[in-house]
Write a structure and sequence with these properties.
The complex is a heterodimer of chains A (131) and B (234). Chain A has two domains: 50 residues; 49 residues. Helix content of chain A is 79%, strand content 0%. Chain A is built from four helices and no strands. The longest helix of chain A has 51 residues. Chain B has 234 residues and is α/β, with parallel strands linked by helices. Chain B has a single domain, classed as Spore Coat Polysaccharide Biosynthesis Protein SpsA, Chain A (Alpha-Beta Complex), CATH 3.90.550. Helix content of chain B is 41%, strand content 15%. In chain B, helix 2 links the parallel strand 2 and strand 3. In chain B, helix 3 packs across helix 6, helix 5 packs parallel to helix 8 and helix 7 packs parallel to helix 8. Chain B starts with 5 loop residues before the first strand and ends with a helix. Classes of the chains: A mainly alpha (131), B alpha/beta (234). Chains A and B meet through helix 4 of A and strand 3 and helix 3 of B. Chain A: It holds the Pfam family DUF2304.
Chain lengths: 131, 234
């Protein structure tokens, strides 16, 4: 089998990315949910890098002049999709964070009220004496 | 004003200097009216200053913004059985002497949200040209998108009824408390009205509106106003 220099580089990049993603999951730094997307990405890179006829066919179908542009196009599309997905996740995280902060404040206030209503109750810090 | 039905919510962020003046004035000009301070992640003695005056405080551990502070206030107001919540700034801009006038149309059921406006009648307030242009612009945006005539969209002196609080405690455009909020409320079918009030310059502390923010403000709020239109009513 004959591999061009580009294909070797692509192969190394794809394998490197896949290994890095797997390692992140193994060390519990990346949740499975996100790892799926990255595994798909590295497999896509590998497929496009190795199957030159497929890459050529896609390039022709899309009316692109140069195969390299097709690779960049898919890379950019993936990066954009990933960023949008992360923005959605971030919005949700922000909303959850706000709700929790508000709820925490309200609970603290309720504890204050209850403590004032029942002066004998334990002060904060597990009932230590003192002002 | 009927005590026990109205809660004044004072959102406060690092207002240890202004807050005592505001709270004392509230007690003097609106005696018997319940007050809640929402300390929005202050790093100074805002919470202590309010507690020292016997005012209940709900404290956010981190700063979430005025809209979120208001949401917290709504939840507290509902849990404590209030019918109307008034938003009053801690910095002394809003005169409690106008509380009765502001609350009256909401208590009477003529509208769901009443907005204390500087422009409904002749007022001592004279804004700089750029600010005035912004106000005319956002007034037009609200009229075109929501079909309501609001002259003072940036006024933070407002009264909300139970219906608004019940929806707002969960779903509130909290990052955009001005024009986008008004459009959002109007599109949900809430009735907005304006009441003439006078406003004063700030007592102490820094104004929220710096130069950078005053340039960013129209962009942010114009875009957010349009986004409100896209949002599915939920």
């Amino acid at each position: 089998m004959f591999l061009s220099r580009t294909q070797v580089i692509v192969a190394l990049a794809a394998v490197g990315l896949a290994l890095f993603v797997l390692d992140l999951v193994r060390r519990r730094r990346l949740s499975e949910e996100y790892s799926l997307l990255w595994v798909v990405a590295s497999v896509t890179i590998a497929i496009l890098g190795f199957t030159t006829p497929l890459l050529k066919a896609i390039t022709r179908t899309l009316g692109i002049l140069y195969e390299g542009s097709t690779v960049f196009f898919f890379g950019l599309a993936f990066a954009t999709a990933m960023l949008l997905y992360l923005s959605v996740k971030l919005s949700r995280l922000g909303q959850e964070n706000h709700a929790l902060t508000r709820e925490l404040g309200l609970l603290r206030n309720e504890i204050d009220e209850l403590r004032r209503a029942a002066p004998g109750a334990a002060p904060p810090g597990g009932g230590k004496a003192g002002a | 004003m009927i005590p026990g039905r109205v809660l004044v919510i004072v959102p406060a962020m690092n207002e240890e200097e202004s807050l005592p003046v505001t709270l004392d004035e509230l007690r003097r000009k609106a005696p018997g009216v319940a007050v809640l301070v929402v300390d929005d992640g202050s790093r100074d003695a805002t919470t202590d200053v309010a507690r020292a005056r016997g005012v209940p405080v709900v404290r956010h551990a981190v700063n979430l913004g005025v809209g979120a502070a208001l949401q917290t206030g709504f939840r507290w107001a509902l849990a404590h059985g209030f019918d109307v919540a008034v938003q009053l700034d801690a910095d002394g801009q809003h005169d409690p002497a106008f509380l009765d006038a502001l609350v009256e149309p909401v208590l009477a059921g003529r509208c769901d949200v009443s907005i204390g406006s500087r422009f409904v009648s002749r007022s001592a307030y004279r804004a700089p040209a750029a600010r005035r242009f912004g106000m005319v612009l956002f007034s037009a945006v609200v009229r075109l998108t929501a079909g309501v005539r609001i002259t003072d969209t940036t006024s933070g002196f407002r009264a909300y009824d139970r219906a608004v609080m019940e929806v707002g405690q969960h779903d509130f455009p909290k990052d955009f408390p001005d024009a986008p909020l008004l459009i959002d409320l109007a599109r949900r079918g809430f009735r907005l009205c304006e009441v003439a009030v006078e406003m004063r310059p700030r007592e102490a502390g820094r104004s929220f509106y710096t130069l950078g923010k005053s340039l960013y403000y129209p962009y942010k709020n114009l875009l957010a106003s349009l986004m409100v239109l896209v949002k599915r009513a939920g």
